[in-house]
Amino acid sequence: MASMDAIISGTDLASDLAGPRPPVVLDVRYTLGGPPGRPEYEAGHIPGAVYVDLDAELAAPPGPAGRHPLPDLGVFGAAMRRAGVSGDRPVVVYDGGQGWSAARCWWLLRYTGHPDVRVLDGGLAAWPGELSRETPAAGEGDFTPEPGALPVLTAAETGVLARRGVLFDARTGERYRGETEPIDPVAGHIPGAVSAPTAENLGADRTFLPAAELAARFRALGAAPGTEVGVYCGSGVSAAQEVLALEIAGIPAALYPGSWSEWVADPARPVATGAEPG
């Protein structure tokens, strides 16, 4: 059963914001290794949107658990309440269009128990209205994160799932094959993983492919009905976009938050290279 309620179009968001129960809107623009997103936010954002800092509020400091470990729940909860997030009010999250950082926030809110979170399909470019330069006053949300509503994988569980089910590697094909590794100290992929780059979840306009096309894509890569599915990437951010794409396709999937950056932190863990799962 496809779940289109994980994403929202720009026109539907504009309609909801004008309605009696407007959603909280979070701006999570972020560029890996690039400048912070706050200056972009201050230059223009969806009216009423609150900026959320991925590195500071949606991840713990880098370390043995990877480059973007899951955040401290106290830090995450405080950031969400300050942004006005409450358990009984819808939330819409957007980024610059790739869907990576927005999906990270979507996944975290869903994982910690929020029932109604959607990603703006296509990112800020999909917004049909004017942009604002006004920063809203701090909100007074009541959301208290309680983890466990979505499945997560440890490194050990990920290695097992790669043999028992299907494990998708959401990074580019070049990184999967080990031809290049711009960030982490070791190139390659987790043995048994299947290459499934996030870029192929989107159309030319950077919106998600229709649910039926996504379902066909993942089925062709091994996600048959009843198969256990896991996803990883470099540090657990872009993999959230793949979990979102799988959700749209109606396929439940577990996230490995530590991802490749945690996997290669232990030299005892095996590494595969080349185009085959290995």
Largest sheet: 5 strands, parallel
Q: How far is it from the N-terminal to the C-terminal residue, by CA? A: 32 Å
The amount of beta strand, in percent, is: 5-15%
Into which percent range does the helicity of residues fall? Answer: 25-40%
Report the order of strands and helices. Answer: EHEHEHHEHEHEHEHEHEH
Poorly predicted segments: none
The main sheet orders its strands as: 1-5-4-2-3
* E-strand count: 9
The tally of helices reads 10
What class do helices, strands and sheet pairing give? alpha/beta
Shape: globular
Overall radius of gyration: 18 Å
Q: What integer is the average pLDDT?
A: 96
Secondary-structure blueprint:
Layout: E1 7-8, H1 10-17, E2 24-27, H2 38-43, E3 50-51, H3 54-57, H4 73-82, E4 91-94, H5 100-111, E5 117-120, H6 155-164, E6 166-169, H7 173-177, E7 194-195, H8 211-220, E8 229-232, H9 238-248, E9 254-255, H10 259-263
Helix pairs in contact: 5-9
Q: Overview of this structure, please?
A:
The chain is of the alpha/beta class and 278 residues long. It contains ten helices and nine strands. The strands form two sheets. Strands 1-5-4-2-3 form a five-stranded parallel sheet. Strands 7-6-8-9 form a four-stranded parallel sheet, with helices on both faces. The longest helix is centred in the middle third of the chain and has 12 residues, at 100-111. The protein is globular, with a radius of gyration of 18 Å. The mean pLDDT is 96.
